Amino acid sequence: MILPWRRLRQLGILGMNQRNADYILPFNPRRHYPLVDDKRLTKQLALGAGIAVPQLYGLVDIVHQIRSLDKLLGPHEDFVIKPAHGSGGEGILVVTGRYKGRYRKASGIILTEEEIGHHIANILSGMYSLGGLPDTALIEYRVKFDPVFEAVSYLGVPDIRTLVFRGVPVLAMIRLPTRLSDGRANLHQGAIGVGIDLMTGRTSSGVWREQAIDHHPDTGGGIRGLEIPHWDAILELTARCFDLVGLGYIGVDIVLDRELGPLMLELNARPGLSIQLANKAGLRARLQRIQSLGEIPSAASERVALGKGLCNL
Amino acid sequence: MKNLHVKILALFLIIIGTGVTYYKVTRLGLPVLPAEQTEVWMVEARLEFEAKGNQPVKARFYVPNNPLGFTVVDEDFISTKYGLTMEDNGINRIAQWAVRRVRGKQVLYYRIELAPEVAVPIKARSGITPPFPAVPDYPEPMGSVVQALLDEVRRKSADVASFTGELLVRLNAPNPDENVQVLRKGVEDSAAWVDRVIYILAGARIPARIVHLLQLKDGINHGTLTPWLEVHNGQEWLAFDPKTGSRGFPGNALIWYVGNDPLINLEGGSSPKVEYSISSQFQELVLVAERRARQINSMIMDFSLFSLPVQTQNVYRVLLLIPIGAFLIVVLRNIIGIKTFGTFMPILIALAFRETELLWGVLLFTGIVALGLLLRFYLEYLKLLLVPRLASVLVMVILLMAVISVLTHKIGLERGLSVALFPMVILTMAIERMSLVWEEHGPGEALQQGLGSLLVAVLSYLLMTNKLLGHLVFVFPELLLVVLAMTLLVGRYAGYRLTELWRFKEFLRKTDTR
Predict the structure, then answer these.
(1) pLDDT (tens digit, 9 = 90+) per residue, B155-170?
(2) Candidate from B383, B501, B508 with C-beta closest to A118
(3) Domain end: A100, A117, A141, which one?
(4) What's the alpha-carbon Rg for chain B, to the nearest Å?
(5) ipTM beyond cut 0.95
(6) Could you tell me where the DSSP H helices lie in B277-330?
(7) pTM of the full predicted structure?
(8) Where is the 7 transmembrane helices usually fused to an inactive transglutaminase domain (chain B) (predicted)?
């Protein structure tokens, strides 16, 4: 009988303590955090570097602006409202359309303008921000996801989370919203994580609430063997995000828009560890290999090639 | 070695912490267990004499001088009107009372409190080696008897110690022969007997002296000194019972003074009398150790928490326990992986539990959080902004606390009043966090985190009310350096959390069947 933690170590599973002590602390300088914690800043940086992001329709940073909300939202049939400092997908409101002067949420629930205003006020007062500091609400383009995910997504938009270490994509998964997650793509809220083979961009089996599954629980669609379109472009996009913020260990979230292709949604300086469960693979060997390299190529394409080579570890 | 720095630092802290503690336990005798008591002897010497009335009075009185095997806890001279000077001649200490004009019966008191020494005494009773005494010119027939006896004893002994022992056995024989009878003649009391033995020992040129002991026995009211014999073997003084010849001092004996002089030397007075009363009592070991430390001029005790005013001491009795609670949280979060609301909220709740007692604390806490949560959900319906909403919850929490206090007081449950000791801002934040988690992640997750917080609070309460721990951190605050060292080590712990074994159980399951 092998002790369970010995077993995990042999499999190269990265634990929370080791993630914090050996990767986040040494590779993510604190002063660069604002660049990823503030989604507005991340968006600006990405635009400056020519990385595609969902278009920003408007900003609300003082409560007074809520009164003229209809002017701001007027030109847009559908949109997303999110806190600039939110984390873990909290405080995100997705409006998919209008109904008799009211707004329809992704779940079909109708909201009045007043209720949307209250949600924005909550965002501004810092309800969803780290440490409860006053926040800004972003109103942006609602992603229309690629039809390839039609059968495996419930309400929300699936996104592709890639773990990028020193600019090299190390492990990737696609996160599929479920009824349980209320359309959100966060694993701890009940979304499904499905591992992606870095080499081919093909999905393997998934994990839902820490159990292995092969089919989406709400739609019944098979989640194994899906081929992610534009895979190489996605990888290159994630690799370039490293140059954007100067953080060594980040999670990059990318969505696939039907018309616009891959868009960078947000960066995360403290990406979770469930990506290992989704891929049924540990992170440690890959991270150690990248760590042992003295020089990291500056070209994103070379770093992607490096990441693909990790599959043979 | 990336962790070497932290490890060395931790080792250093542990060495300092345990080292100072070790010193305090072994040298100062600070108790490792709480409420330890030690026997303290209270000896009172009562001097009584008649003043002549027409001349100044001067009374020289021997008092103990760093008595072997004891620590002087306290010493007092009670003598109004008299001036007091102390004198120390290396062997004895003499107190001298003086007064110019006094009349009638005089009573002076000398009081000393003694605690048994913790450590084995370091200093040997050596001092200056005395010169060999000259052989006395014994009167006949004593001279020839002494000579014969000494010759015989010398043949049957090897050194000063065995010589003295053998001599004393012969002199004290129950059926003495004629020679010994000659030597015993004219001895009236035990002090004179010791003098006689010293006189005989001088015939063998062995330095000897008389030592006056006080036998410590509880409840003595008219105690007197017992004479004892000491001989010098060239290196140190050896004690002998002059009546049996057995080595050493009797147990619980206090050396009052050494030498032939009378205990009290009086000028301007007559018929002096000295009586001892002895009692034993039990005192807090901590207090005794504190005095002992002061006596040996230990810096550590000067800067200990005992030097603070009692009120401040009581504050520190609580404060010093907080690091223990914090360490528990470190372990529970980083090694076990339990989720709580906020990092140190459970400690503050646990501190409140100290005042309310555990069962009441848990009941009041869950009651207030549950009621507050209900009200919070109602506020959600009103669509208030965040800060006013928090403030509203705070107001309601305080009102709830007041209502609970009044109601329980009316019913006659006085414990309910202690609800006021809960940190209400913490309660408010707990309610807000819980309701957010409730909405975002569902009631299951909220209850799980709430129960997690409560569990951690109860555990840290149990730890922080532990008598032994409370005593240890207060008496040995340097042990917190050890806690700090362990916290540093956990700070660099990169292993798995216990809950991660559960989280990654999929990996474990798959590989087990393989």
Answers:
(1) 888 888 888 888 888 8
(2) B383
(3) A141
(4) 37
(5) no
(6) 285-295, 299-302, 310-319, 322-330
(7) 0.71
(8) 262-507
